[in-house]
Design a protein that fits this description.
The structure holds 2 protein chains of 2 kinds. Chain A is an all-alpha fold. Chain A has 21 helices and 2 strands. The two termini of chain A are 23 Å apart. Chains A and B meet through helix 17, helix 18, helix 19 and helix 21 of A and helix 5, helix 6 and helix 7 of B. Chain B: It is a multi-pass membrane protein.
Chain lengths: 482, 497
């Protein structure tokens, strides 16, 4: 096997890196401010990545780069979903960003760099590559948030994001170094083996684990490490908020899987308890605080926190079933989140952000179809059948019941009842109230088509959830077979 | 598939498809088309359910017209439909009411007609789904999904305080439902990975305390819907604020869904807990019958009065379930159907008055009989049925439940029978104040009597109320085998140790 063909699992990453550089240079020669060519090139690169990922797929688990990089079914599925959600995010945000003069070559390049970071995170099987991917993603995101440099609030939130994010990275690195000290390895599978043998220093391991969990919680935005989430979500331009709230959650899920499940499975009893605290607190704080919000983006921020609490339920139940359900939850969450932020951007105009709750008043009278799509998205976030959000909740709760976490499940359903209130409030505003303005909505054809697909997908996947559920379950199962 | 098409799927999906079709007619410029399509859809949806009655085999308590397909294979969830002697009646009741609701809203609803009609049609299909689902998750999906159209109906077309009422309705019911979901997940794991309701019926439970917990979870879901005291407070609000059609569906159909849940889930899945907790349930039922009956007496708002009367009548239903004998059970089921007709009719009567005078307060009326004699006659009949006059449908169920209660305990029967006095008192007193006496104000003086469209609706309901009162056998006959089987099932302990 020659060098080039042995690298085939990483072809997609290599291709994307080449494309980013090419796009960055090409963009210099494009003066047109609509950046159509650059935009199309970006979309084509994402398409190309998906084709490569599909065509280089191999059964089983393949490691390359001295066990730094892994290619399994889970990574392929997650990568494909990442491309899809990045591409959707670009369609949604194009006209929004153009109206604000932010649709620049740098924006597109940074998005692709962040995508590359996510791909590396998803496929990492070594602490070094995990951290590398994470930082590539995080640095791109910090910059994206700060891209609107003449907006004080955006700059402020970028600063907060950066400082807290850097601290979280510090936590992670500290935890990783302790694990390295205890096990003598940075390799995910090797660490699991060493811990399993029982020769490692247990207190040191648990100490390292605590730091790692704290770092993860920062990145996921779980309570009590959630402080940055509302500020960043509200402060960043909506397109960036959408980006932060979508694909990176898939990467974060992979990150949790690689770190906690693959490397630290033998310590499950320890981290399961920690995650339970994080999960309950996230659901409580997220859902209760969201009620008090008047800014939609901030409300979504708290709702994200609550959703992350739910997602953790699947992981902490510690079964393959549970991990699969968490993955399903992450995918569903990304779909809903894209739709929710997409709707905000769709209703925004030049010089007007539709991010206040009252901007949704009477939407049903202005555009019944958009209101109906938002209704589907909101009921899905609230977890009401027949939308797919229900099955996301159902599957994580099922995993928790299976492992005997009944009190946790009861708490989770009670918090989701509280959560239902603020989603319902949006439906109430759209359907029951009279509109504040009767201005005609200017809606781009591409993003309105996409929001329709997005909303109907939430319904269709809710009517027939089996395929997506099985894909998630099988891919997690496959990646855990050693 | 005796008739060449899957009957139950048709009963569920036909109204939903028509609902979507109505939605597609768009804004109010096409209101006429929306109404017509809705009516055609509603009538067709009723017609497709008639073979369920004619083709029903009365000799067996097995599920009939069964359809079974894989749905979510990963969790072993099936698209499993079927009816027995109990659920078939409710499918018919629900489908019977859909055209009536469409006709009742024909002229009154002027804004967003398509959405209004569509919401009712979709809800009708979803409610049918609740009654025919034999897979617990399928049941749950229909059960929750039907909240969405009702939420919209109350919130968009309701009265001044509609937002509060809609949110209260939704959150109350969601709380119960979510706890039921936990119970279903528990049962799923106990049964070794099956969501089939019939498997749950056959399955033994590890202990009485487990049964009691499951019973309580189900109780939370179903008692909110019935509603039983003390979780009944959403109902008067929802009824008062909902548009006429919404009140009719709430009273005639939605409340039955809760009671049906007791029959399908609580009683057969947790029989021992049901026996153990029966005194509590009976107490709550009697409180509903007596106390809520007294509360109804003091109401000044007609809709609120009928709403409280509904709670009181539903107390009879739950009483009938938990005295565990054939009279009680069949009486309760007949009472459910009768209450569907009567409460639906009463809300339509109030709707007729409200459309003309725009007030639900009793004091705003008086002497209506002089201006609307035909209406007064229909109203009289339904008021009598509500007070349980022999010869109307209201009598049959109440009488049977009281008979059953006498068998169980004299005092139950004594307290329950008080409803014959209170029920008559609050209904007839309201009737007297609204219909008789001198004409009190200009609004009443300018009333026109009901038109043909309204007459048609009332004639249908009169036939139903009198028919069931004079000759209840067709209703009792169809449920008989199933009820007996359920009682045998209930008498068998299901605890493992």
């Amino acid at each position: 096997m020659n060098l080039l063909s042995s690298l085939s699992p990483a072809y997609a990453e290599i291709f994307l890196l080449v494309m980013v550089c090419a796009i960055l240079i090409t963009d210099l020669f494009i003066v047109n401010h609509t950046k159509t060519i650059t935009y199309l090139l970006v979309q084509l690169s994402l398409l190309g990545c998906s084709l490569i990922t599909v065509s280089t797929h191999e059964d089983g688990i393949v490691h390359i780069f001295h066990h730094m990089f892994v290619d399994d079914l889970m990574s392929d599925v997650l990568k494909l979903l990442t491309y899809l959600s990045v591409s959707m995010m670009l369609v949604y945000s194009r006209s929004y960003l153009m109206a604000r003069g932010l649709f620049t070559g740098e924006f597109l390049a940074l998005v692709l760099f962040a995508t590359l970071g996510m791909m590396v995170m998803i496929s990492a099987s070594n602490f070094i590559s995990l951290y590398l991917g994470l930082e590539l993603l995080a640095l791109s995101l910090y910059t994206l948030v700060a891209l609107q440099r003449d907006s004080a609030i955006a700059t402020e939130s970028a600063m907060k994001y950066f400082i807290l994010g850097a601290m979280a990275s510090g936590f992670l690195l500290y935890g990783m170094s302790m694990l390295y000290g205890a096990t003598g390895s940075l390799d995910v599978n090797r660490i699991a083996e060493v811990i399993h043998q029982g020769t490692a220093n247990k207190p040191l391991l648990v100490f390292g684990l605590a730091f790692i969990v704290a770092g993860l919680a920062f990145k996921l935005g779980a309570v009590p490490f959630h402080m940055w989430v509302p500020d960043v979500y509200q402060g960043a331009p909506t397109a960036m908020t959408m980006f932060i709230g979508s694909a990176p959650k898939l990467a974060a899920f992979a990150f949790v899987m690689r770190l906690l499940v693959e490397a630290l499975q033998p310590l499950m009893i320890d981290w399961s308890g920690m995650l339970m605290i994080l999960s309950v607190l996230s659901m409580a704080v997220g859902n209760i605080t969201a009620i008090a919000q008047t800014n939609l983006k901030r409300m979504f921020a708290y709702s994200t926190i609550a959703h992350m609490g739910f997602l953790l339920i699947g992981v902490l139940s510690g079964t393959v079933e549970g991990y699969g359900s968490s993955m399903f939850y992450a995918v569903v969450y990304v779909l809903m989140s894209l739709g929710g932020f997409g709707m905000i951007m769709l209703l925004s105009r030049e010089g007007f952000e539709a991010d206040n709750l009252n901007d949704f008043k009477g939407l049903n009278q202005r555009s019944p179809w958009l209101a109906f799509m938002m209704l589907l998205l909101m009921f899905s976030m609230a977890g009401v059948p027949p939308t797919v959000g229900f099955y996301a909740k159902f599957s994580v709760l099922n995993a928790a019941v299976q492992t005997g976490h009944l009190p946790l499940v009861v708490m989770a359903v009670l918090f989701s009842l509280i959560g239902a209130f603020y989603y319902l409030r949006i439906v109430k505003l759209m359907y029951f109230d009279a509109p504040e303005s009767h201005e005609k909505l200017y809606i781009q054809p591409d993003s309105s088509l996409l929001i329709s697909i997005n909303g109907l997908a939430v319904l269709a996947l809710g009517l027939l959830p089996n395929t997506l559920m099985s894909v998630c379950a099988v891919s997690v199962q496959q990646s855990l077979l050693h | 598939m005796i008739f060449g098409y899957p009957l139950l799927s048709a009963a569920v999906w036909l109204p939903i498809l028509f609902g979507l079709l109505v939605l597609a007619t768009g804004n109010d410029r096409n209101a006429k088309m929306a109404r017509t399509i809705a009516l055609v859809g509603a009538i067709l949806s009723f017609l497709v359910t008639i073979p369920l009655y004619t083709g029903f085999d009365r000799m067996t308590s097995d599920m009939q017209f069964v359809e079974m397909k894989d749905w979510i294979a990963r969790f072993n969830i099936h698209y499993h439909l079927g009816v027995d002697g109990i659920s078939v009646l409710f499918v018919l009741l629900n489908s019977f009411f859909t055209p009536l609701v469409v006709i009742a809203g024909w002229k009154v609803i002027e804004k967003r007609v398509a959405q209004y009609m569509a919401a009712f049609l979709i809800m009708s299909g979803l409610v049918n789904g609740v009654f025919v689902a034999l897979d617990a998750m399928l049941f749950y999906v229909f059960w929750e999904a039907m909240l969405i159209p009702m939420f919209i109906i109350i919130g968009v077309w309701g009265g001044p305080n509609r937002v509060y009422a809609a949110l209260k309705f939704f959150l109350y019911t969601l709380l119960g439902s979510l706890l039921m979901l936990v119970a279903l997940l528990y049962l799923y794991h106990q049964s070794g990975g099956s969501f089939e309701i019939l498997d749950f019926h056959r399955m033994a439970m590890p202990s009485l305390s487990a049964q009691i917990l499951v019973f309580i979870a189900f109780f939370m879901a179903f008692s909110v819907k019935v509603p039983m005291v003390p979780v009944h407070t959403w109902l008067p609000d929802a009824h008062v604020e909902a548009p006429t059609g919404g009140s009719v569906v709430l009273a005639a159909i939605m409340l039955k869904v809760g009671a049906y849940g007791f029959i399908r889930f609580s009683l057969p899945i947790t029989p021992d807990a049901s026996h153990y907790l029966a005194p509590v349930m009976i107490t709550l039922s009697l409180i509903a019958v007596v106390y809520i009956g007294l509360v109804a007496l003091t109401q000044s708002d007609m809709k609120k009065l009928v709403a409280y009367s509904s709670i009181s009548h539903m107390g009879f239903v739950t009483l009938g379930f938990f005295i565990f004998n054939a009279y009680g059970m069949e009486g309760a089921l007949l009472q459910m159907i009768s209450h569907g007709f009567v409460a639906g009719a009463l809300f339509l009567c109030i709707g007729v008055l409200y459309d003309r005078v725009h007030s639900r307060q009793i004091v705003d009326y008086g002497g209506v009989a002089k201006k609307m004699p035909i209406f007064a006659a229909f109203f009289m009949l339904f008021a009598m049925a509500n007070s349980g006059l022999p010869g109307t449908s209201g009598f049959v169920g109440e009488f049977m439940v009281i008979m059953g209660a006498v068998k169980a305990n004299f005092w139950y029967a004594f307290l329950a029978a008080s409803t014959l006095i209170f029920g008559a008192a609050y209904t007839l007193w309201m009737y007297k104040r609204v219909i008789f006496g001198a004409i009190t104000n200009d609004h009443v003086a300018h009333l026109r009597d009901i038109g043909n469209r309204e007459k048609l609706v009332f004639v249908f309901l009169t036939v139903a109320v009198l028919g069931m009162g004079l000759y209840p056998l067709p209703f009792a006959d169809i449920m008989h085998t199933t009820v007996n089987d359920l009682l045998v099932h209930l008498a068998t302990p299901k605890v493992l140790n």
